[in-house]
Amino acid sequence: MTIDQGAVDRTAGGKEGASAASTRAEEFLADFARLSEFGATVNGGVDRQAGSDADVAQRRWFAELLESHGLRVEYDRIGNQFGLLEVVPGAPFVVVGSHLDSQPTAGRYDGAYGVLAAAHAAFRLADEWAADGGTGPRYNIAVVNWFNEEGSRFTPSMMGSSVYTGVLQLEDALGTSDRSGTTVAEVLAPAGFLGAGDGPEAVFCAEIHIEQGRVLENSGSTIGLVTASWAASKYVVTVEGEQAHSGATVMADRRDALYGASLLVVFARELADRFPGVLHTAVGQLDVYPNSPVVVASEVRLLLDLRCADEAVLAEANALLQERFAEIEEIARIGIRRSLSHEWGIDPYQPEGVELARESADRLGYSREEILTVAGHDSINMKRRVPTVMLFVPSVDGISHNEGEYTRDEDLVAGLDVLTDVVRRLAQGELAPTPGAVEERTR
Ligand code: HGY
Ligand code: MN
Ligand code: MN
Fold it and tell me: Given this model, what pLDDT does residue 10 score?
């Protein structure tokens, strides 16, 4: 591609010219194409769930890439992968990145874009500061690939950043099993991804991600300045019935777990329809036992998610759901066990970080607007600990968790430019750190 530098200095605080910037953009896109080969699917997507062979292979490749640019690679005790650019010995780190793991048959961009953009931002700044001869930053940079953001193989999602920020206990995370009984520890240890420490000490955080919606595309903006997240309640539900012959058993005698689960799936949709545009719901996974012909199911385990733009509506929806659980138990003659595996509220991102990102987009000449994130991100955990900047780039047609996920090259490069400037400014100390934030971290 050709990068149009136009009349605007896209290198902002950097000193390189248009042709060097274009070369760097080409290098980024070439690395992104290489990264997209890991777990590549025939339809142009990727399949690299946490701890899978493809995930292990891409992590090894990513470690080599980081090291080839002089970063030191480390893993913490939950397998978060860090590339440390330590230019101020002993100073804390601007932690910047996202996740390389994916959903099954997913898109190439979700998470992976943010990790690679973070790495290239660090490479640019490393070169810039090396050439600078003295006016370096106040803080170091830690590029991060958070372990198991998707939660598709190991529940809950955002696992690595949840342990890093103390939201989830390390032992609980390491002992989590996938559906075949393999634990997180059992995939991380043999691959060499289980470190001994807690990872680098964060002072700020930044993440860039594809929007996974249509807001930026509809308005024509290049950069999303994320101000807050939708809230979420994620349930693990077990519907308990009784195994029976699906032909011979009279209907009145049945305690059909799959019937109960189905009523729940339908109710989740009806619940969202009561709060149009404000509440999103879905059952994303069903495990039916024994899942056999001519057998009434004795047990169904399912994962039910509620996402909401309004915490009061979410509370009402959760109350309605509890009522419906009881009704379904009566109707289907089954029992329902449920627990919240993960939840978060509508905490805002720090406004001063949004402002800093707005200035970066403006001085680089990219159109931008404020936006909410409906999807979960590791930065949702991080913003509770340290000032955190979250950026979006447009998703074509809003398609995500789908092999057809697509973001245009020029938007990827624009996002990288803005992220680089944001990280440069965070590392230079343009935002005030939260007093005591680093010490609060659970160890
Ligand atoms: O939105 C989610 O829950 C996922 O972890 N990204
Ligand atoms: Mn993601
Ligand atoms: Mn995702």
Answer: 64
Which pLDDT score, from 0 to 100, does residue 443 have? Answer: 33
Best of 158, 342, 382, 405 for a ligand 1 pocket test (most atoms within 8 Å of beta carbon): 158
Question: Is the domain covering 231-344 a CATH 3.60.21.10 domain?
Answer: no
Ligand 1 center–CA 157 separation, angstroms: 6
Looking at the CA of 381, which ligand is closest? Answer: 1
Residues in the chain with pLDDT values less than 50: 1-7, 437-443
Ligand 1 atom at minimal distance to the Cα of residue 305: 3
Ligand 1 contact, 157 CB (< 6 A): yes
pTM of the model: 0.95
Ligand 1 atom closest to 374 (CA): 1
Three-state DSSP string of the chain: CCCCCCCCCCCCCCCCCHHHHHHHHHHHHHHHHHHCCCCECCCCCECCCCCCHHHHHHHHHHHHHHHHCCCEEEEECCCCEEEEECCCCCCCEEEEEECCCCCCCECCCCCHHHHHHHHHHHHHHHHHHHHHCCCCCCCEEEEEECCCCCCCCCCCCCHHHHHHCCCCCHHHHHCCECCCCCEHHHHHHHHCCCCCECCCCEEEEEEEEECCCCHHHHHCCCEEEEEEECEEEEEEEEEECCCEECCCCCHHHCCCHHHHHHHHHHHHHHHHHHCCCCEEEEEEEEEEECCCCCEECCEEEEEEEEEECCHHHHHHHHHHHHHHHHHHHHHHCCEEEEEEEEEECCCECCHHHHHHHHHHHHHHCCCEEEEEECCCCHHHHHCCCCCEEEEEECCHHHCCCCCCCCCCHHHHHHHHHHHHHHHHHHHCCCCCCCCCHHHHCCC
For residue 302, the CA-to-ligand 3 centroid distance in Å is: 19
Q: Which ligand is nearest to the CA of 392?
A: 2
Atom 2 of ligand 1, nearest CA residue: 376
Quote the pLDDT of residue 268.
98
pLDDT of residue 14: 64
Q: What ligand is nearest to the CA atom of residue 151?
A: 1
Q: Where in the chain is the domain with CATH 3.40.630.10?
A: 5-230+347-441
Q: What top-level class would CATH report for the domain 5-230+347-441?
A: alpha beta
